[in-house]
From TrEMBL:
<feature type="binding site">
    <location>
        <position position="876"/>
    </location>
    <ligand>
        <name>ATP</name>
    </ligand>
</feature>
<feature type="binding site">
    <location>
        <position position="656"/>
    </location>
    <ligand>
        <name>ATP</name>
    </ligand>
</feature>
<feature type="binding site">
    <location>
        <position position="431"/>
    </location>
    <ligand>
        <name>ATP</name>
    </ligand>
</feature>
<dbReference type="InterPro" id="IPR032631">
    <property type="entry name" value="P-type_ATPase_N"/>
</dbReference>
<dbReference type="GO" id="GO:0045332">
    <property type="term" value="P:phospholipid translocation"/>
</dbReference>
<feature type="binding site">
    <location>
        <position position="432"/>
    </location>
    <ligand>
        <name>ATP</name>
    </ligand>
</feature>
<comment type="similarity">
    <text>Belongs to the cation transport ATPase (P-type) (TC 3.A.3) family. Type IV subfamily.</text>
</comment>
<keyword id="KW-1133">Transmembrane helix</keyword>
<dbReference type="InterPro" id="IPR044492">
    <property type="entry name" value="P_typ_ATPase_HD_dom"/>
</dbReference>
<keyword id="KW-0812">Transmembrane</keyword>
<dbReference type="GO" id="GO:1901703">
    <property type="term" value="P:protein localization involved in auxin polar transport"/>
</dbReference>
<feature type="binding site">
    <location>
        <position position="852"/>
    </location>
    <ligand>
        <name>ATP</name>
    </ligand>
</feature>
<dbReference type="InterPro" id="IPR006539">
    <property type="entry name" value="P-type_ATPase_IV"/>
</dbReference>
<feature type="binding site">
    <location>
        <position position="622"/>
    </location>
    <ligand>
        <name>ATP</name>
    </ligand>
</feature>
<feature type="binding site">
    <location>
        <position position="599"/>
    </location>
    <ligand>
        <name>ATP</name>
    </ligand>
</feature>
<feature type="binding site">
    <location>
        <position position="738"/>
    </location>
    <ligand>
        <name>ATP</name>
    </ligand>
</feature>
<protein>
    <recommendedName>
        <fullName>Phospholipid-transporting ATPase</fullName>
        <ecNumber>7.6.2.1</ecNumber>
    </recommendedName>
</protein>
Amino acid sequence: MAGNGTKRRRRRRLLLSKLYTLTCSKACFKQDHSQIGTPGFSRVVYCNEADSPESDSRNYSDNYVRTTKYTLATFLPKSLFEQFRRVANFYFLVTGVLSFTPLAPYTASSAIVPLLFVIGATMVKEGVEDWRRKKQDIEVNNRKVKVHRGDGSFDSKEWKTLSIGDIVKVEKNEFFPADLVLLSSSYEDAICYVETMNLDGETNLKVKQGLEVTSSLREEFSFKGFEAFVKCEDPNANLYSFVGTMELKGAKYPLSPQQLLLRDSKLRNTDFIFGAVIFTGHDTKVIQNSTDPPSKRSMIEKKMDKIIYLMFFMVVSMAFVGSVIFGVTTRDDFKNGVMKRWYLRPDSSNIFFDPKRAPVASFYHFLTAVMLYSYFIPISLYVSIEIVKVLQSIFINQDIHMYYEEADKPARARTSNLNEELGQVDTILSDKTGTLTCNSMEFIKCSVAGTAYGRGVTEVEMTMGRRKGSTLVFQGNESDDMEYSKEEIAEKTTVKGFNFRDERVMNGNWVTETHADVIQKFFRLLAVCHTVIPEVDEDTEKISYEAESPDEAAFVIAARELGFEFFYRTQTTISVRELDLVTGKRVERLYKVLNVLEFNSTRKRMSVIVQDEDGKLLLLCKGADNVMFERLSKNGREFEEETRDHVNEYADAGLRTLILAYRELDENEYKVFNESIIEAKSSVSADRESLIEEVTEKVEKDLILLGATAVEDKLQNGVPDCIDKLAQAGIKIWVLTGDKMETAINIGFSCSLLRQDMKQIIINLETPEIHLLEKTGEKDAIVKASKENVMLQIINGKAQLKYSGGNSDAFALIIDGKSLAYALDDDIKHIFLELAVGCASVICCRSSPKQKALVTRLVKSGNGKTTLAIGDGANDVGMLQEA
């Protein structure tokens, strides 16, 4: 049974490590492994020997996790400390204590009862909020996982009962209950796919691989008698490092982050894994990264404290002046043996009106006056605000407009302390992909052999059409343009990930096109160049795809819908049903997969090397335009000009584009490459990655261009309206994205971040002078000229702002990543901030994660106001932490 329990799936056992040239490499000892056993690397784990004396003698933490602010023992002292941090509460505590003395002008109960009510009400509110956290902890700690009980069988146990060294079985779509060392999986070579969204926000799946020596342990009974000894680093907060060794049957094997499965990440695209518990509870990396719930105090609370200080100063001043006058008058009360104010009966008083001890009488009067004037400070001020905050939280939790139906998730105010901070936000810094957009890709257009295909209209194009007042028309030949409403467009979309319509290539019509051979290679590349895994529903025989990213799935689905169905994979082959150009019939073709050079953010491309049924060796490559065009051969640029134009048009329409190209390899060339890549992969030197990069650079060149794909990442529902309302509230919005400038600008229009009446201040380095310097000049000259150019553009922008009379609503600032690097230099950044703050909207394009964090820091420290950062990916973590 598969993870969801509703459909039966069929999947071949695969040796997927064969697919991953860069990610999966043979484990090897590195310099860090020599530190095992030294301080910081002293953890010892006896796997599958939970009851051994050695395990019991080590005081490792249990797997119970607590995220609450208080415990039963600390609730009273900690919450009382929290209450008396407030100036007014402390003041009333002092006056309450004094009210028990004869100095009090009122009874003690009239001072103490209101204070107890205020403190009690706030403590109850804190207790209720912490109890909600406690219930969440109970739910997490009571989750079940299968644990080996020692005789080759597995029983379900609660997470909180796990111990170091336990062998656990985690099934598809389940979370890992602790930090585990991966032993084996449903795949024969111990590969598994992991989603780390809870750790770093990244939705793309990560590939992990167990050691070869444990990969055969794929059945529950295999663990009867299994014993291993692990030595590794001590608990730490670094999510991306792990150093350890596993001793098994007398041999030692190195452990790396590739074998570590972190608590709170999720198993995906893999039926099950077996793992050994290494870190539990508060020793796990995710908990090490979390901090204790802080005592958050809002701006209003801090402001109230200042007001209370002022009022307290006024009360003390009034009491002091009054007591000085009282002291002087009391001292002068007794003259020549006669009492002036006999009616006060000072002769019967002990101290209060004794003329002989006027200074002491004055001090006592001061204390009495302080108590009497305490009503200037409203004791109900804090509790009134607490009640308002609690009611606000209830309204937020019950707000039907903030309910997300698709995921069945209502809004949750986890603490009421910071409600009003939402109303203090001055600047919002947001990521685009997955935040403003859905991160749900749909194949909508493509350019093949210099011809644009796809008559679909994107949301951005609809918005642009409305701006220009034109009718919404599907693109096509002038003779067959057809008008559609948005509703009709939605109705035609029936396949998730596929929103492509063009009768010239659909239903096999592409065979009649001029460049049918190029179209065939284009769609064949989409069907073969990927790491997707097909799953067959045993009931319906329908194929679904498990992909590492939404883009990958969209490409494979598009290839299938257009006649190139990828339906079967083994560790070394891919099977595709495709249309034969000669016979016109659907045939099954087998492609032998020799290497996969995976995509990463540095390479910005992905390649596979395959051998077809005729014995031809093909390198199929897809990647970003700025990386791919420079890798084309001289005779492979036939359609370059038209493809570049189409890519720019797609960017204008807010689409994400990839360039597709290929080349044929001869056997000798491939033999040399394969030997080099094997040698680089097995290298144990520190520059292993650069060696691999060098080898791949040599083969991914002299490519022949086929065309470009364009996928749409639709806007989240309600984004334009939301941004409109935020703008009306005077909140400045910055979008930080890795997209091209044209794409970002057009998405800015479609989500109402940019408006037609706005003046765009564009800062980039796309000038002939800079291009000329980049071709001929030295690095220092380029840096100097670029910096001066950016500075000049910023000054010109400020001049435009000044000329407009400082009307920020009329301006939008758009800056690219290269320019941003210079704009964030110490000597320019404050001028850049002045310009940016003067604009209603700011878009930073092609920005790196570090730049996102630096921009956030600049905004937060520069204007000193509340800054809100929103993001969903690993590249947003720095930005979120800075805010």
